[in-house]
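Example 3.
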Amino acid sequence: MTRLSMPPLLDTRATGRLSLTAMAGSRRFSDGPAVATAGFNQGYLGPTIIVQNGDLATEVTNRLDEPVSAHWHGLLVPGEHDGGPHLAIAPGATWRPEMVIAQDPATAWYHTHIHERTAAQVYSGLAGVIHVADGRDDQRGLPAEYGVDDLTLVLQDRRFDAAGRMVYDPSMMDIMHGFAGNRMLVNGQAGATAVVPEGIVRLRLLNGSNARIYTLFFDDTRLMHLVATDGGYLPAPLALDVLRLAPGERAEILVDFAAGGAPVLLSDPGQPYGVLQFEKDPTQTARIMRLPDQLDGAPEDLSGNEIRTRQVSLDMGIGGMMMGGGGFAINGRPFDMNRVDFEVALGSVERWHVRSTMVAHPFHVHGVRFRVVSENGGPPRPEDTGWKDTVLVPGEAEILTRFDQPASRETPLMFHCHILEHEDAGMMGQFTVT
Ligand code: C2O
Ligand code: CU
Ligand code: CU
């Protein structure tokens, strides 16, 4: 058995400083030959960064031979610190945003975001997890010991060729549907087993895949108790037997391993495949033995405060793919770095009516957390009832959000489909907040 390991921890709480370096790596995934990869501070993926509210003096150095960026997906920071496509870091250069963290505890993440290169660069490994911590999880009765009863799990599918080499060679069809793999990696490891104590364990799940949507469940039907969504805690744990997780989304769940055997986390009830094997360590005493009844998350009801409604249609550009028009678009227009799509008033609440065409697109907005008020005309799925920054839109969804982070024309904020091939092909727009 190979024991699953956690990404190394990078705790910024004592210093208020964060230093990342994008670098090239080379890695063997299980039995295959080594392939070229990339990562932050290591050869594949990046450390798990712990931040707390307050100043965070950040530096990101690029030691790769192409531009990269460091986008903080889920951190509520202004456009100039957001790390989107306008904030490319040239090879050899260092970007130094003086950030201020001011938000509720949450599991966020970071990844490169260069227009037309995001899919390939994230696939190669330029991504990692962020914990926004406030040091009060003991009071909440939540497991919080990193790698022991608080596991960070980066779910990624990757494609391996017959020689066992990890490949990224999207065809036209892969771009249409998003690039899917034939093997699961968790924290960059294939076929590893997560060892857990016999009690309550917290799993912080990140769907860091380019395109795959997971519908997670345990083979022995044990429940998953959802305690946090993208933007923070729920008011109380929500028991689920399946959990849907689209690219870019995070979910924190509590799982009780006191009873039963060694379960497997699977995806897709219709045609199940394995995501992660668990095994219990009977010598390890669990710190937490019961679920908390309540949490202090309070997703705010923003309804009635909106000052305007916008339509966001996730679609194809005029002429579509066949005309070589770049293919994917929002409201019929493919992404253009030089065009501001929406101008939003700072501090205002807006209702966005988002519609997917062709396939279900996971819709993400930078610099905000939002509430999902409806999905296909009905109430949102349980997974979507908390604070979100990314939501799968099977048909239509309405979101309400307040725009509290300023963004200028030089560094606007993005909204896009988080299927990275769609994003790169033009399913992205940008907005200012002034
Ligand atoms: Cu995960 Cu535009 O971001
Ligand atoms: Cu983002
Ligand atoms: Cu899409």
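Helices lie at 118-124, 137-140, 172-177, 420-424. Residues 361, 417, 419, 422, 427 surround copper (II) ion (ligand 3) (CB under 6 Å).
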